[in-house]
Here is the input.
Amino acid sequence: MGKRRLDPTLLVGLVMLLLLALLVGLGQVWTPHDPFLVDYGNTLQPPSTKHWLGTDDLGRDVASRVMAGGLVDLRVALICVIAPALLGIAIGALAGFVGGRVDTVIMRITDIFWAFPFHVLVIAIVGVLGPGEANLYLAFLLVNWISFARITRGEVLVLRELEYVQAARSFGSTDSRIITAHILPNAVTPAIVYAMADVVLTILAVTSLSFLGLGIQPPTPEWGLMIADGRQFMFDAWWIATAPGLAIIYTGVTFALIGEGLDTALRPKG
Amino acid sequence: MLTYILKRFVQLVPVLFGITLACFFLLRALPGDPATLLLGARGGAEEIAAMKQRLGLDLPLWRQYLLFLHDILSGSLGRSVVYGQPVISLVLERLPATLWLVAYSTVIAVVLTIPLALWSAVKRDRAPDILVKLVFTVLLAIPSFWLGLVLVVILAIWVPLFPTSGYGAGLFSRLHHLTLPAFVIALATASLTIRSLRSGILNVLGSDYVTTARAKGNATGRTMRVHVLPNALISSISVLGAHTSWVIGGTVVIETVFALPGLGSLFVESIFARDYPMIQGLTIVFAVLVVLINLATDIAYALADPRIRLD
Here is the structure.
């Protein structure tokens, strides 16, 4: 076992994540100003030493709102990836391991879901359920599991034929032990890598929904909503929509780099 | 080839049937109650019951599904609650703008993807490759609605090169109006397709026939032109096909930002108007669009690549 050097891309991603976590965490206990404080005498102020990123149309401090709003977006994006990932991995492992008719049925279902554009399906579901955080979770759970199921199934199909799994079987290991001890630990690697890329896409989708008015509802500080608020002031007060946009990009790049780094680090050499 | 194409069309039938089932059960089996949402706080118990009857929500689920299928097979896709018209007539009215946007952004995405992916693959792990990767990692993370707003401020207000919104009439004016929205969708698409095509080209570069061509003493330029580029073009068809659903999903948000009269903005309007039959009909239309475009790219791919003969 040689010393493993941390992949540089992964390292940059992790440092960026640490910084993000610190800022968002700090935003929960301290912000430069009260993110909810409306001040009509102080609206649409450009960035200054008092208000680093300016103020919005209600005189609220943009920097404070970006810090405070990060928590909602991160929480929603992570839950909207992790919960469907667990579901998808379980379904995919089942399909790949059991095979036969179960596999065929599950794969046909994913084929059909595959035909619906992701945004369309999520928007339709949220449209039927009504906006709000809890409904976002349900919508993403129903849509996001597909990729994880397909990826995991593909891995399990390969792994279950490998010698060490056959060996475990010949020693009389039970199916459940073969899955949990021998197959899943190896099968989940691509799903974990994909999950990081999926966080990027999910943050974009969640903020788009909020931007359209279908996601998180005001007055909660949230990046997509802040961009929607700043939209009508793009020309006079560009900073209102710019700051949360940059925050989304920063977060997306962070997870993209971690995904990329994990891909390099976890992929078997050869 | 004809048998292959025919076979693909026959295979379409169960997929389309599955789409109707999935759409129906996803949107009806959810806990939401469209009649109550539609009437809001104004609705009394009687009004809600009347609305349920009008939407057919008081029937057992299997009968609702049969009615739904009937609406689809009769070609009307149901009747809009808000417009009082068959969903299909509104779809046909709004479809051209979306198809223009999809086609235009696909062209821009291809123009960006092929040269950048080739450049990246040939200069693998060197400065150009790393630069392309970095730029498109950032582009992937940019929210398209935000980029749309920023580009409007820069390229439509500060430097008034493009209109801020609208659709235009006549070919030139239409392309002029659609350039910014198509460009935004194309950037998001290219950030995915460049990566896939790059790894496709790397596979070609490592393949036996390219090694042979090199061993025969072919110049690098000739090897690229004769052996690598045609294969890269062919695989770009399937790479783009795989991202159709992404492009079509992207139109929903972008049409709203640029106020384009397409299916996407109609979809968002219907969500706010609680136009339940319209939401359902449009969800089906979007899925059918994806399936048809995927079928077209598969056939184009089979025609272009002599190795594919799947009959």
Summary: The two ends of chain B are 7 Å apart (CA to CA). Residues 105 and 182 of chain B are 4 Å apart (CA to CA). The mean pLDDT of chain B is 86.
